[in-house]
Structures are given as C-alpha cells and as structure tokens.
Amino acid sequence: MRARTALLIDPRGEMPQAALAELERAGITVAETTGYGLDALQAAFTVRPALILIGISDPVARPLDLIRRIHDALPDSVIVGVIDTSARDAFEHAIAAGAAVCLDTRDPQAAFALAIGSARRHYERLQHGERLAAIEGGQVITVLGAKGGVGKTTIATNLAIALERASQGAVALVDGDPLFGDVALSMDLPVQSSLADAVADLSSPEPRDIREFLTPSFNVSVLPARARALDGALVTGDDLAAVVARLRQSFDFVVIDTGGAFTDLSTAAADAATTQILVTTTELNSVRDAARAIRWLRQRGGLGAPVPQLLQNRAGMRGGLSRPEVERELGVSVVWSVAEDKRLLQAMQAGVPVVERYPNCPAAVAIRGLASSFVHVHGSLRRPPPGNAGRRPLARLFPYTA
Ligand SMILES: Nc1ncnc2c1ncn2[C@@H]1O[C@H](COP(=O)(O)OP(=O)(O)OP(=O)(O)O)[C@@H](O)[C@H]1O
Ligand SMILES: [Mg+2]
Q1: Distance 376 CA to ligand 2 centre (A)
Q2: How far is the CA of 125 from the centre of ligand 1 (A)?
Q3: Beta strand pairing status for 215-217 and 220-223?
Q4: Strand ranges (DSSP E) for 146-265?
Q5: Probe target for ligand 1 pocket from 344, 349, 357, with the most ligand atoms within 8 Å of CB
Q6: Which residues 6+ apart lie within 8 Å of 254 measured at CB?
Q7: Which residues contact 109 (CB under 8 A, 6 or more apart)?
Q8: Which residue ranges in the chain fall short of pLDDT 70?
Q9: 373 Cα: distance to centroid of ligand 1 (angstroms)
C-alpha cells in the first residue's frame, strides 16, 4: 500500500479541478490516470494506492463494475466515487459496490475536503480491523512470543482481567497451548472442560453453545488447556480458529495465550488476531528471536493484516538491553513496556494474577495501561493501541486533519 498515492479513473478527463486541488493540498501524488478498462485494474494492482478517485457518469455499468472488482481485490484502498449530473441516481449503487464515499461533481471544494476526510476515517477503520470486527464480533488479542518463558501467559492472563475491569465488557481468555499451557495453573483454576473438549464438540451433530465450555475466573471466561493428558495433541490450528470465531460472537474481547514457538496453533492464533502482541524480554537472545518473529509475522500477514505490536517485558532486568537498544536491534518501536517485577512471580505462585493481587505494583499498573489502550483511547472501544505509526498511514497522508 503506497500511502501517498492516488489512482484517478477518469476516462473523460472530467475530474473536477477542486478534487485535484484537494489531493495536491493533502500532498498526495496521482500515480496514474486511466479509463474504465483493464488498464484501471492493472494500475490499481501495480500502484496499490491508498485512494482511488473514480469518475462516474452515465452509463454507469462499467464504473460500478470496476468499483466492485477493485474493492474485492484491494479492500484496503479507499474508493471515492465522483458522480456527475448524468448519473445522479448512482450514489447508493456506488456505495453498495464498495465506494467509501461519493460526491457530486458540482460540490464546492469544501465538500471534497470533507469527503477525503471521511475516506481517511474509513481507511483507518479498515486498518484497525473494525470492518472485520463489525462482521465477526469482538476484538481478538493474541499474545505471541518467539521464545518460551518470556512472559506470554503472565501478560495474557493479566491483560484479560484488566480488560474486563476497564471495559466492563465480556472477556474470554483462551489457552492456545493445549499440550503445555498453564493459564489455569496461573489462575488457580480447576479445569472442568478444555479447549480440546470444545473442539471435539464442534464436530458433533448438535454443537453446544461454546460458552458452556468456559470457566469463570476473576470475571473472565477462561477456556483452559487440556483437561486430560494428551487431549491437546488432537487440537489443530484450524480447530483453534473455529473456536475463536465462535467466541467472537459472544465476547467483546478474546485474548489468546500461545505456546513458545510458531507452531500450527500459534500461527492460527496469530492469523485470527485483530491485534498481535509480541512479547520479548530484554535479553539479547530474546530480542534477536523477536526480530525474526516480526519479519515472519509481517511476511505472512499481507495487506490489511495487523502489524505486530512489541511488548518489552522484564524491562530493567539485570543484564538486559535498554529500550533504545531493543528498538535499535529490532528496527521497530517498543509499544509497551512491563518492568521486571518480583511481584509477578509471587502473584503467580499464589494463583492470583498480579493485577488482582498487587494492583499498585509497577507491572500491574503497566498492564492496566495496556488494557486501557484498547478501551479508552479517544473513547473508542475499537481503537487499537497507540505507538505504531505504520498502523495509521493516513495520519501521515493527511497530516493537517490528523
Ligand atoms: N515482568 C516480569 N518480572 C518478573 N518476572 C516475570 C515477569 N514476567 C514474567 N515473569 C516470570 O517469568 C516466568 C515465565 O513467565 P510466563 O509463564 O508468563 O512465560 P511464558 O512465555 O508464558 O512461558 P511458556 O513459553 O513456558 O508458556 C514466570 O515465572 C513469571 O512469573
Ligand atoms: Mg505460557
């Protein structure tokens, strides 16, 4: 996606000057101008522009068909229909085909600015997964780590509890490591039914409500790992994805704890995420593995996928790297930082997550901050956590409105 480019589909050369002036004012370059034919599709694929302005005049069949095709192929490009007087009735049709906004060629310049602002918000929502969330349910926050023991379970359990407190919403916590996961242990939770049981039920002729498999703990609904030894060996990534898809229907947030490496299950959990949190400690080895994990997640994510958000855990631990050193090593910003804090171990040993047991210790405060970034930023429930410029490309594209 090239954030500062637009494609103009304007076979008659009638795009209003005001629209072109507005693009220029926003610092957006028109990469190409095409007609309604194959050249338009080819240019869209090659340029992958943030914005596509398409002139719509009667007969409207071709431009509407083109909007449909481009929208299907490049759902993250914002399409703005510019409709002339001959095609006044095409507004709704263009929106139905996939245009984010439509405007009339006779609109004064101010209307173009508004339309482009509206397109920007639409683009941000797409980037933030809201389009999917609206259809598929709640947010999915997957906690990943390239190495074992970096603090994934600690972060996932405490984040789930803090999210429930901050949002007053319904929160599910899934142990995505059916063989070795220890979410239940860290919450001192007796395992009544597990991920493996929920998966087995999915293939029964009349599956039960997935919520029946969850156990409440600290106001969070937990789907623990195995109930019986080796049950977990039967669970695949596809199974986990199916369970998460069900949970999203009933919960505002689904937090997934994952196993140590990028297994079939962790990969499925990463793919299902609307936000991926990648945990690393400040040890050099852990940071280097995180770099590999980020590259891998980005490669497989593709267009529109969430950018992994880096959480530096055990900050300040003896012999660890400083935050600037971690960032230099990785080439990405640390989005969240949780300090080395012995209260975490004490809390875990007591089977009470730290945000409950020692709510005022530095680690608990940091994790609550992490949770509230999903809930309170600008008052939006859907807004993703701050700190990664790459997730708000149009904020850079339209700096004057950001
Ligand atoms: N910020 C921290 N300060 C001090 N200790 C921590 C911190 N974060 C985690 N720990 C401790 O590190 C240990 C490993 O944490 P945790 O079990 O959460 O890691 P994990 O990534 O889930 O491991 P695994 O890959 O085995 O599932 C635990 O004993 C935990 O208490
Ligand atoms: Mg763990």
Answers
A1: 27
A2: 34
A3: antiparallel
A4: 171-175, 215-217, 220-223, 253-257
A5: 344
A6: 138, 139, 140, 141, 171, 172, 173, 174, 244, 247, 248
A7: 18, 21, 22
A8: 1-4, 108, 110, 117-118, 120-136, 227-233, 301-306, 376-402
A9: 22
Measured distance CA(326)–CA(287) in Å, rounded: 7
pLDDT of residue 335: 87
Q: State if residue 349 touches ligand 1 by the CB under 6 angstroms criterion.
A: no
How far is it, in rounded angstroms, from Cα 325 to Cα 46? 37
| H or E stretch at 196 | helix 195-202
Write out the residues surrounding ion ligand 2, Cβ under 5 A: 152-153
For the domain made up of 132-383, the CATH class stated in words is alpha beta
Q: Which residue is associated with the tokens 């089977």?
A: 351
In this chain, the answer to whether the domains covering 2-128 and 132-383 adopt an identical fold is yes
Amino acid at 309: Q
Residue 334's H or E segment, with its range, is strand 334-339
Strand partners, 336: 311
For domain 2-128, give the CATH superfamily.
Answer: Response regulator (3.40.50.2300)
